[in-house]
Amino acid sequence: MTMREEVTSAQLRSAAGMFPSGVTVVTTRANGVDYGMTISAFASLSLEPAMVMVSIESTSHTLPHLAPGKPIAVSVLSDVQLEHAVQFARHVDDRFAGVPIRREGPADVPVLEQAAAYFVGTVADWAQGGDHTIVTILVEDCGVDVTREPLHYHQGRLS
């Protein structure tokens, strides 16, 4: 029996890229400052209680603002928000510049206007998953705009 070589990052990225996913922007508000980032690793987790989850690179500068108990929103981007997906993925001073938002929940977390759907809640817990942190979210409010089509991420491309 021969040992199989370890899977490389490039192999895993290529194989996982064959699975199309939606694109979200995860946001929070801490000490009067808005924070946000583009995330494609999002999933529904539980119906009872209502929970979703995101996976965030553990070195993210936004992650410390998403500690358990903190407010959080997830905007599921629509197909007219490709520029927002790119903007929130960049390392810029103000990722919210020029992006229309509304405030939701008691903590006034930002939710992107024109999103196909949104979830607002509280960070429930963290779990380590290799070089990422899995963030579980207790959903307190959510909604959908049935007139919008979701933005997709597939093979490294947004469409």
TrEMBL record:
Domain of life, source organism: Bacteria
Residues annotated as domain Flavin reductase like: 16-159
GO BP term, example: pyrimidine nucleobase catabolic process
Coiled coil spans: none
SUPFAM superfamilies, per database record: FMN-binding split barrel (SSF50475)
Entry keywords, A to Z: Oxidoreductase
Gene Ontology MF terms in the entry: FMN binding; riboflavin reductase (NADPH) activity
Protein name: Flavin reductase like domain-containing protein
Protein source organism: Corynebacterium aquilae DSM 44791
